[in-house]
Amino acid sequence: MLNYKITGFNYYLLDFLFNEVFIGESYNFITTKPSPVIIDCGANVGFSVLFFKRIYPQAIIHAFEPNPNSYKYLEKNVSQNALTNTTTYNLALSDKEETISFYVNGEDLGTLVGSIKKERGGDTELKVKAIKLSHFIKNLNAEIDMLKIDVEGAEINIIDELCDAQGLDKVKEIIIEYHHKIKGEKGNLSGFLAKLEKQGFDYNISSAFTRIGQFQDILIHLYR
User: Residue 130: pLDDT above 70?
Assistant: First the structure.
């Protein structure tokens, strides 16, 4: 695809991700920097990483994927496309640094909805190591041009931790896929956005729904 060699679980997932990431350009952003620093939270098998490298070939990317089954393909897609300045981490990001439960759906180990929430991920429990993103950003000691977060419900934990630790001070833009009303839970999008407004961010929102009360993926692009 587009001169990339991409390996994944099955053709359905590859087709879905290609259309979402490359055709839909969900993670597109504009910067004048030739080597922007990008943190990719929830990289799955690496389509977002490949997209970032396509628009900014010299980008410095740190990609996190907690699902060990997806992570092996992330590593392979980085290596077989000879991506430079790209580091991968088989870690979850949360508000605590500990081993946590991560859920996938039965035998579908390559699911796109693996989550720290059983209601979102499924019945099969994996144990994964989690770290605080604020600690990583502090140790990185660099301005973050783009923070991409697609973590199937864990975005609330990550943003809460970053706000409490003032970990967003060095972040210029954020693209978050916010998961609204997982299994019908009470909505709190306004509260989530209010935290980011207090951090100095404005935003644009993209979403759609067909039935009142249903779950929604809401794409939020935040900027200063």
Answer: yes
Q: What value, to the nearest 5°, has the Cα angle with vertex 33 and ends 31 and 35? A: 120
pTM over 0.85: yes
Cβ atoms of 167 and 134 closer than 8 Å: yes
Residue 117's domain spans which residues?
11-223
Strand 37-41 versus strand 146-149 pairing type: parallel
Phi first, then psi, for residue 184 (nearest 5°) are 75, 15
Which conformational region is residue 82 in: left (phi greater than 0), alpha (psi within -120 to 50 degrees), or beta? Answer: left
| Residue 5 domain flag | no
Confidence of residue 22 (pLDDT cuts 50, 70, 90): very high
CA nearest 40: which of 56, 55, 27, 58? 27
Inside any domain, residue 137: yes
